[in-house]
Specification:
Elements (H helix, E strand, L loop, with lengths): L1 E2 L3 H13 L13 E7 L2 E8 L2 E8 L9 E5 L1 H14 L8 H7 L5 E2 L5 H4 L1 H4 L1 H9 L6 E2 L1
Parallel strand pairs: 1-7, 2-5
Antiparallel strand pairs: 2-3, 3-4, 5-6
Length: 143
């Protein structure tokens, strides 16, 4: 079992995502971005290069500047999304990254640098990122 959030959890998801041809590239091709993930007061960075997620690491809040954009939700909302994915094998309509972004007044995706080109990568790579998180359905997650 992998505990969310942790580098071990992201690595477990990464291993599934990187080795399943149905997931890799399924979001319409390559993905090249540095994604930050904020879960409460914890911060992680995921690096996507080509057809795979090449790295996952824990970072400090200040390192979010290095990310193209980051996803931020309270831990309970992450748990709700991941439980939905686990239960259904994928996110259902109200728990997709896109819907979560649209349903929040402040959005799900943001940045610290206000570089619109880099922030737009969330929308460009949204489906690829969704496939990445959907891969978590295949691991046992604890919180």
């Amino acid at each position: 079992m992998a505990k969310f959030p942790s580098v071990a959890w992201f690595d477990a998801v990464r291993d599934i995502y990187n080795t399943d041809d149905e997931l890799r590239g399924a979001g319409s091709g390559t993905c090249n971005c540095t994604l930050g993930v904020q879960v409460g007061r914890e911060f992680f960075q995921l690096t996507f290069e080509g057809f795979e997620c090449s790295a996952a690491e824990k970072i400090t809040k200040g390192k979010l500047d290095d990310c193209d954009f980051y996803l931020h939700m309270p831990a309970k909302d992450w748990r709700t999304m991941l439980s939905n994915i686990r239960q259904n094998g994928h996110a259902t309509y109200n728990q997709t990254l896109n819907t979560l972004d649209l349903d929040r007044p402040e959005g799900l995706s943001t940045s610290t640098h206000n570089d619109q080109y880099r922030e737009d990568m969330f929308f460009r790579y949204n489906q690829t990122l969704q496939f990445f998180f959907n891969a978590s359905a295949r691991i046992n997650t604890t919180y």
